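Open question from group meeting: does this chain pack into something compact, or does most of it stay loose? Before anyone orders reagents, we agreed to write out a predicted structure and look at it together. Recording both the input and the output here so the notebook holds the full record.
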Amino acid sequence: MKHKRGRIEIIGEILDVIDKGHNRKTRIMQSVYLNWRNFKEYMKFLLENEFVEEIVDGTERYYELTEKGEKLLENYRKIMEVLKIVSLC
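Structure tokens returned:
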């Protein structure tokens, strides 16, 4: 049985999905298993705090990590790695 994800885990998952190149709204939303309402809430937070930027190229819209977002993702991954080690003890 999977545990309920917290806000930090969801944000980390969104950043990770964007970092891996899945950067369109629907693909991000599906990859992190969010409904549209929750997805909009998280993306609003990430955009307002400049972790993610929206790129508009003609009719296409996609998202990329900012430098600040890359640092947050790096720190998130480090924390998750430490938590995995601790849970093995």
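Observations to bring back to the group:
The chain has one domain: 7-84.
The chain has a mean pLDDT of 92.
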